[in-house]
Amino acid sequence: MVRFSRLYEIVRRAAAAALMVAAANAAAVHPAVADQPAKEIFGAAKLPALLPARAIGFYSKGCLAGGIAMPADGPTWQAMRLSRNRRWGHPDLVALVEKLSREAAARDGWPGLLVGDISQPRGGPMLSGHASHQIGLDADVWLTPMPDHTLSGADRENISATSMLKKNSLYVDDKLWTPAHARLLMRAASYPEVERIFVHPGIKKKLCDTWTGDRAAMGKLRPYYGHHYHFHIRIKCPPGVSGCKDQNPPPAGSGCDKSLAWWFTDEPWAPAKPKKDDKPKPKKRAIQLSDLPQACAAVVAAPGPASEAEVTLGADPVGRIARANANAASVTASAFAPVPVPGRIPLPVPRPAN
Predict the structure, then answer these.
(1) What's the CATH fold of domain 2-264+287-330?
(2) Which helix (H) or strand (E) holds 114?
(3) What is the pLDDT of residues 189-228, one digit of tens each?
């Protein structure tokens, strides 16, 4: 235990040093991108910042240092929409998704996960789609079970997830819904590090009405628009990480109450009434790098792996951080190095311990 504590302190100090060096480089990079929308900056990054893993900011306003990629294929998962390059996350999140895939396959009758978007290599705002998924702690998982064969690249780009709802309805279609869906969702919610699971109100109601097992985690399943073909896992900020902001905990209770009933009224779905205002609305300003936490400038400025060999240096956290410091001190060029092997995203190591 003493040896581990000493190693942890070495890593902690090295992590701080890495961010300080990267922050110094950020001053040189920032002016060149000061007027560029943050989504363009982070959307251009092909590989992660070579920094210790850190979720920075809030789920919808932040970035990711030291992200790792969810492998495209595993024994109990397959990643979808590979062309988006959005399967990067904090190691804690990647570990949890892999754990869920294994345990659901072993215990819940769910053959495997089809994993959708996680985050970009350095997190941050995206060019399209999500407002959240910015700090590597959010992941989308399809409600379609993994098939018994490896999907082709074309299949991963073109097939669609299956909606669990009856056509033109807010309610689950019992021809599509199975007890395994319920077990998968309740298992995901049961993990203590999970902060919320977003699902469609119809799915939440189905669970409220039919789940007969332990309901302690039911309140983590939060009804929200759109999540009828996938569910969204959000984990808490990793322990001891500074600069990462958790969402407020969900309300106490199961959530199978008036707050859920509201979703089945007209109010949530009614078109917004136009305001009586003759003044033209100002054009919405794009989020800039300066709008994000200050540490995100260091993430932008930090060097990325220049080759696959550099990314797979081995399971030596102190050595990896020391190399990151050396690289950050000597490299001032663009952080957005190209993918070294065409069509392949290298996997930073060490892989998370599960």
Answers:
(1) Muramoyl-pentapeptide Carboxypeptidase; domain 2 (3.30.1380)
(2) strand 113-115
(3) 999 999 999 999 999 999 999 999 999 999 999 999 989 9
